[in-house]
Specification:
The chain is of the alpha/beta class and 237 residues long. 37% of the residues lie in helices and 19% in strands. The protein has helices spanning 26-40, 58-62, 68-92, 114-122, 140-150, 184-190, 197-205, 220-225, and strands at 6-11, 45-50, 97-101, 110-111, 126-130, 155-160, 165-166, 178-179, 181-183, 210-214, 232-235. α1 (26-40) packs across α3. The relative contact order is 0.17.
Length: 237
């Protein structure tokens, strides 16, 4: 695997819960921050998008009577809370970090623009882009691909609690096997659920390759970027 100079890292909000059923685990934040700092210290420019499912998920609110637009807006705010928590944790490790938001909410964070994000990354900051796309009906997976394409990231890394993509759900099918590499077209054909179709199609159409890996095993982020065979690579080739 070639070396990368700029990446987009997608983190799920649920992963921030750790072993608890809700909220933010300080231990998990510390683990993620150490991994991100180790990569940043190597000179790799990092953009990050975090989900908000550990606090509020818009679709779950709809099932309980929330208006979909309001529910998604609440979910966007949840991603801002997670982004601020990660920024604080990164800062405590000695890693410079900036939070940019897709909707205006100074002084919580600066309004996102590609130029501002790239400027901060080139000056050595980790850039955390919060608030999803700023619009309802779009997931943070879609937001992460959109931001990855905008900032001209060379690869998107989806940090999860599983170690890659399998032929089937391992909890339902113990015979499921893991892919080391797979094409976007084969994922479509097999109907594998990696992220929502809008996000996945954007990756394919913009030739933004994707690596799905286990972020919860400390050190994996650095190993992936060092070219070790961890996780599953999804690409057009």
């Amino acid at each position: 695997m070639r070396k990368f100079s700029r990446i987009l890292l997608k983190l799920s909000g649920e992963s921030l819960m750790g072993d608890s059923g809700y909220g933010i685990s300080t231990e998990k934040l510390e683990s993620y921050s150490k991994q991100i700092k180790a990569v940043s210290d190597k000179g790799i420019q990092i953009g990050i998008v975090i989900g908000g499912g550990n606090i509020f998920r818009g679709l779950s609110g709809v099932s309980k009577g929330f208006d979909r637009v309001k529910g998604d807006q609440m979910g966007m705010l949840a991603t801002v809370i997670n982004s601020l928590a990660l920024q604080s944790s990164l800062t405590s490790t000695g890693c410079r970090a900036k939070v940019l938001t897709s909707i205006r909410m100074e002084p919580v964070g600066e309004l996102y623009s590609k130029d501002k994000a790239v400027e901060y990354m080139e000056s050595g900051n980790v850039v955390i882009i919060a608030g999803g796309t700023g619009n309802p009906f779009f997931t943070t997976d879609t937001a992460s691909v959109l931001r990855g394409v905008e900032i001209e990231a060379e690869i998107m890394l989806k940090g999860t609690r599983v170690d890659g993509i399998y032929t089937a759900d391992t909890e339902k099918d113990p015979t499921a096997t893991k892919f080391d590499k797979i094409s976007f077209d084969e994922v479509y054909e097999r109907r594998l659920k990696i992220m929502d179709l809008t996000a996945f199609t954007m990756c394919k159409e913009n030739d933004l390759s994707l690596i799905v890996f286990d972020m919860d095993t400390e050190g994996n982020l650095e190993k992936v970027l060092d070219g070790q065979s961890i996780g599953t690579i999804v690409s057009n080739r």
